[in-house]
Fold this sequence. Notes:
Blueprint: H1 2-22, E1 25-28, H2 30-36, H3 40-76, H4 82-136, E2 140-143, E3 154-155, H5 157-164
Parallel strand pairs: 1-2, 1-3
Helix pairs in contact: 3-4, 4-5
Amino acid sequence: MKKILVIITIALLCATTGFAQKAKFGHVDYGTVMKEMPGIDSIQKVLLDYQNDLEEMGQQMADEFKIKQAEYVNLANTTTSTAILKVKEDELMKLYQRLQDFVSSSQLDIQNKQIELLKPFQDQLLAAIKKVAEAEKYTYVFDITMCAFHADTDDLTAKVKAELGIK
């Protein structure tokens, strides 16, 4: 039984050693290439404009809330009936909840817009990485920012940039 385990272990070691020797590893600085891609700067402007529009709408809602809150405080300091104060308080709470919901959905909208705008660039970059990897016969290409250690890999960043027409 021990001989069988030893033989299996040796076979596995030989198989994985052979694989590691045949595998070719490379890396790319994905973030740097992405920042240098033609047209990516226009994405930032579109995203900033989109964000500013949402912030402006949020500010209008916040201003409306402040006005309603001040009105409520003024009413509370007079002889206004508790029934009217309760109605005004409920209106204020609904407005506050709408504001909170808007802020939450705005953040998600901005993230989704960013994903939507960046997707074509990401697809183009991944296609370039794949083309370089296949042409150079690389088994694996890693994003350098995701690797804690990469001593025995080749930097393919310049080749990928050239494939994308980036100087």
